């Protein structure tokens, strides 16, 4: 069976099909990113008969068109949105959406004498030789009347050339644009592969892009659901955009969908700022127990996962599930409670989280557990918190995670989250993991290592103070200011022969400390700076400031998973120190995890 067909459509037919929604442009609700120069150049290419590239569409079954009609086959435009929007702007005179979600015209002018296109300016508007807005000629019922009016104003120009070029301009409506229509029975992965092969830039098109396009095809409801996702993600990052959306998208701002995300205008939290890709994936898990974004496309297309056949009666039910899931995901109460839950696990800053997928699945799990009324809120939080940290430590949601997501959600449904989590812990967090695997994983230099981040989270939960700090906690330093300090200073190690960054920048040689303490320590080895501290303890002279107090020094070392004999560490036994510190850090993380 052919995977696609290739057609040539006149510009006028293309615009008519877009207007009637036979071809859906899901990006129209998003800001137009082309500048007016690109629009001008596109008009010039159409005028001169130059190729402008193929549009790529994908058939969508059961989409809603204007007037309540259900389309047997609607084409979703998956490549060429900006070109079609530019043609609509210049030829049909339709406004585009700006970055502030306001609407503005991009007006293209044309000089019939020089055959030049230009963005309209006040100077051009005053010059009678220019047609200030080319959309006027396409709106005109008869081109010859337009020509007559132009020549009446410009009596002294070469009227034959002017008339000929105006007629040629009007012929843009008949310019042919190639459309590659992909078959509706292709899966998302195949469509994406074809897209990449056709697209000269080789830009990947994610399954979430397809899902967003598919969501928007279901009439006003679909467009509103898509906007709900888009605006939620945008406001989570830029709350100030609320006024722009409210002012410039009046129809949506009066809907229940906008009311659902209005709370974000006061949101200053940046721990979890999901993208539309994240929201689509979470919605797939919450609404359909499906881990692949492409599965949402199948569900919204009415495709039965068992028979693989399309049943249009399934489509409204699928949109009901999607809307319900999205309202749960974007709920102020649910979202804020989930963020607080993650913070209670010690991950109080986005700097401590480098796996968005771990957050996404944990949020979906939390929402799914809320659907089970037999589980208390405390138990839901305990399971979700523990699952999140487990997934961070094991890298469960990295790599090809989609199949794992589906399997996990299926097993959670079958066995219950608590029992299934216990099975995973037995297999992946055995005694061997804590004693051998985790210390090995801590043999790294990156502070963005999930294992080092988990260690910091463990310190946050335990209330540990910064290295050699008397009062200031790791939590305070993480939220405000603090330095990653080399326990055995870098310059000291370099002078001793450790030239490789992979040696002196080991995370086992790191500790969070106050800036003042870091400066006071300078490049001295532990024997020197600790002896000064012990001397200050004995003489009660606080020459290094408010560092540690009395026998509190040993406790501070324990809080930072440092050996009590740190004072004896030097260049000669530095590598042994690293090995011992990794074991101590692993024990700290284990105690923390088991207490979650």
List the helices and strands and how they pair.
Blueprint: E1 4-10, H1 11-19, E2 23-24, H2 36-48, E3 55-60, E4 74-79, H3 81-91, E5 96-97, E6 103-104, E7 108-111, E8 116-119, H4 122-126, H5 135-139, H6 143-153, H7 159-170, E9 176-182, H8 188-198, H9 207-215, H10 219-237, H11 241-248, H12 250-253, H13 256-261, H14 276-288, H15 293-300, H16 314-329, H17 332-344, H18 356-370, H19 377-394, H20 402-415, H21 417-428, H22 431-441, H23 450-462, H24 474-479, E10 483-486, H25 490-495, H26 501-504, E11 510-513, H27 515-521, H28 526-539, H29 552-559, H30 574-594
Structural commentary:
With 596 residues, the chain is of the alpha+beta class. It folds into 3 domains: 4-198, no CATH class; 215-432, no CATH class; 439-594, no CATH class. It has 30 helices and 11 strands. The strands form 4 sheets. It has a 5-stranded mixed sheet with strand order 1-9-3-4-2, sandwiched between helices. Strand 7 and strand 8 form a beta hairpin. The radius of gyration is 31 Å and the shape is elongated.
């Amino acid at each position: 069976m052919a995977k696609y067909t290739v057609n040539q459509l006149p510009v006028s037919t293309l615009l008519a099909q877009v207007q009637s929604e036979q071809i859906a442009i899901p990006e129209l609700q998003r800001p137009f990113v082309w500048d007016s120069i690109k629009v001008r150049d596109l008009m010039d290419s159409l005028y001169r008969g130059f190729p402008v590239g193929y549009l790529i569409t994908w058939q969508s079954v059961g989409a809603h068109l204007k007037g309540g009609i259900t389309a047997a086959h609607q084409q979703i435009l998956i490549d060429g949105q900006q070109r079609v929007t530019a043609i609509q702007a210049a030829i049909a005179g339709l406004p585009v959406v700006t970055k502030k979600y306001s609407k503005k015209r991009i007006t293209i002018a044309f000089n019939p004498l020089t055959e030049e296109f230009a963005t309209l300016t006040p100077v051009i508007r005053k010059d009678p030789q220019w047609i200030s807005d080319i959309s006027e000629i396409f709106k005109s019922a008869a081109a010859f009347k337009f020509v007559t009016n132009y020549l009446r104003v410009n009596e002294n120009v070469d009227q034959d050339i002017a008339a000929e070029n105006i007629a040629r301009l009007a012929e843009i409506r008949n310019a042919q644009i190639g459309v590659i229509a992909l078959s509706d029975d292709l899966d998302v992965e195949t469509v994406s592969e074809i897209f990449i092969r056709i697209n000269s830039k080789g830009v990947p098109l994610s399954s979430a892009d397809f899902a967003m396009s598919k969501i928007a095809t279901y009439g006003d409801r679909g467009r509103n659901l898509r906007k709900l996702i888009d605006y939620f993600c945008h406001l989570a990052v830029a709350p100030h955009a609320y006024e722009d959306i409210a002012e410039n998208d009046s129809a949506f701002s009066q809907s229940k969908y906008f009311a659902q995300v209005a709370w974000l205008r006061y949101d200053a939290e940046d721990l979890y700022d999901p993208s539309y890709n994240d929201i689509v994936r979470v919605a797939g898990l919450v609404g359909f127990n499906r881990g692949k974004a492409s599965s949402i496309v199948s569900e919204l297309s009415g495709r039965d996962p068992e028979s693989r056949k399309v049943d249009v009666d399934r489509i409204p039910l699928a949109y009901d599930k999607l809307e319900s899931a999205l309202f749960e995901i974007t709920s102020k109460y649910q979202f804020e409670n989930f963020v607080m839950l993650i913070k209670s696990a010690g991950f109080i800053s986005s700097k401590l989280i480098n796996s968005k997928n771990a957050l996404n699945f944990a949020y979906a799990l939390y929402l799914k557990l809320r659907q089970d009324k037999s589980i208390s809120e405390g138990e839901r939080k305990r399971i979700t918190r523990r699952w999140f940290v487990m997934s961070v430590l094991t890298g469960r949601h990295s790599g090809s995670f989609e199949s794992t997501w589906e399997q996990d959600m299926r097993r959670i449904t079958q066995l219950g989250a608590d029992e299934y989590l216990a099975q995973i812990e037995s297999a992946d967090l055995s005694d061997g993991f804590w004693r051998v695997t985790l210390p090995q994983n801590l043999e790294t230099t990156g502070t963005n290592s999930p294992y080092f981040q988990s260690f910091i989270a463990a310190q946050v939960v335990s209330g540990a103070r910064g290295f050699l700090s008397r009062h200031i906690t790791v939590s305070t330093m993480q939220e405000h200011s603090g330095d990653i300090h080399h326990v055995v200073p870098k310059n000291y190690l370099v002078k001793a022969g450790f030239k490789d960054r992979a040696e002196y920048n080991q995370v086992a040689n790191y500790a969070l400390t106050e800036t003042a303490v870091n400066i006071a320590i300078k490049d001295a080895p532990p024997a020197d700076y600790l002896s000064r501290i012990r001397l200050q303890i004995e003489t009660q002279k606080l020459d290094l400031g408010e560092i540690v107090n009395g026998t509190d020094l040993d406790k501070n070392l324990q809080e930072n998973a440092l050996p009590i004999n740190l004072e004896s560490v030097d260049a000669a036994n530095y590598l042994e120190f690293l090995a011992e510190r990794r074991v101590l850090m692993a024990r700290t993380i284990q105690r923390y995890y088991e207490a979650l």
